[in-house]
């Protein structure tokens, strides 16, 4: 195996490892460690498109209204059946249209995004630091 190919495999392996660490962070949010992949995807969608609506999520993921409701409830303050949610997203009434609810990251959600990015890109930061010295 050539050195370049080996370095490429190590890079992929390291990126996969960092992604696995981010997924593990999500699993630790819920003591049961059963955070659905859909909930993670919806959380990242809200992080990407602040002030989005449940309808936006339904369209983007081709998800039913019931599924979108379950996933947004799961990552917000209150989950179904009165259980506590993950508290990563807040649901706020749209001031322009009282019938719509806007989804935004909470402080906890923003902290998780920051921690995720730090984990995903920590190798890049150390690489950049070498050139800054």
TrEMBL record:
Matching SUPFAM superfamilies: Winged helix' DNA-binding domain
Protein name, UniProt field: Possible MarR family
Lineage of origin: Bacteria, Bacillati, Cyanobacteriota, Cyanophyceae, Synechococcales
């Amino acid at each position: 195996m050539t050195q370049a190919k080996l370095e490429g495999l190590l890079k992929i392996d390291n990126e996969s490892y960092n992604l696995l660490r981010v997924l593990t962070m999500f699993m630790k949010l819920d003591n049961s460690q059963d955070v659905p992949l859909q909930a993670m995807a919806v959380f990242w969608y809200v992080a990407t498109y602040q002030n989005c609506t449940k309808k936006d999520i339904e369209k983007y993921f081709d998800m039913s209204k019931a599924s979108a409701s379950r996933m947004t409830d799961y990552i917000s303050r209150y989950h179904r059946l009165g259980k506590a949610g993950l508290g990563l997203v807040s649901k706020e009434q749209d001031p322009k249209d009282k019938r719509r609810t806007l989804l935004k990251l909470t402080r906890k959600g923003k902290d998780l995004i920051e921690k995720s990015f730090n984990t995903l890109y920590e190798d890049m930061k150390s690489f950049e630091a070498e050139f800054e010295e």
